[in-house]
Amino acid sequence: MIRNAFTCKTTAWLIATLMMFFGDVAMARSLKLADPSELAGKWQVTLQDKPLDVCTIELNASQTVDGAECLGDWLSEQPTGWFTEPDGIALTGKEGAKIVFFSRQGEGLYRGTSKSGLIIILKRKVQ
To answer: Beta strand pairing status for 98-106 and 41-47?
Structure first.
């Protein structure tokens, strides 16, 4: 009787451990890294608390950024590059360090927070 209880408890722990391990593996596989060409194009950038402050940037397929002067005013430095991440887009400075990360909120809509706490909305511009 005691031996059965020990076996059931051990089995339960083993199953729980396997579910956690394989769940993490499945989650990692479900996050698809977008190809830069999928995100390249013109994007509208606004501050959440000042929706009238709008600027347009262009994410190039070569992973450079054009027209980011206005965005540089809201961040610690002007972005010069970008790269995709499984759950969003990261903008980088001239040294290649990440300046801001935009998490995906929906199709063509991303949200990021600057180091100073400004909430920045990145929205694909309809062409």
So the answer is: unpaired
